[in-house]
Amino acid sequence: MGIKDVREYLRQWDREKDILEFDTSSATVELAAQAVGVEPARIAKTLAFKNGEGALLVVAAGDAKVDNKKFKQEFGFKPHMLSPDEALALTGHPVGGVCPFGLKQDVPVFCDVSLKRFDTVFPACGSSNSAIELTCEELDLYSRNVRWVDVCRGWA
Fold first, then answer.
1. Model pTM?
2. DSSP state, 16?
3. Calculated CA dihedral for residues 6, 11, 14, 16, nearest 10 degrees
4. Is the pLDDT assigned to residue 44 strictly greater than 90?
């Protein structure tokens, strides 16, 4: 699962060949930024939250932090991260490689406005040593973004 599913998923846009794989871990924002060679803010981290029996994903800039008040105003409940086992079961991707592509279940994806200040960003691709460079428009399309949200702080 994981990166294989993402490769297959991105094939519909002929982007599977653009997935970057690293010899080192890219499981954290800092490690991903080092592996890619960009500032940490340009890493598009995918955060997995409990949503009833399911989940929702928020893709945000690497330097952004979820603002509990904004999150609750947007989604109507307090943010609680999925456990590593829950994240794997619901997304098909391990923690460190969770991304909004090739998901195991139909999990809604929301992109945070903290990403819009960059021409391109780097989300993971289903493994702890992968990424792909995308424009925000491509991220919006490929992730099947429900809508852009403003649920983060600390980046502006």
1. 0.96
2. G
3. 40
4. yes
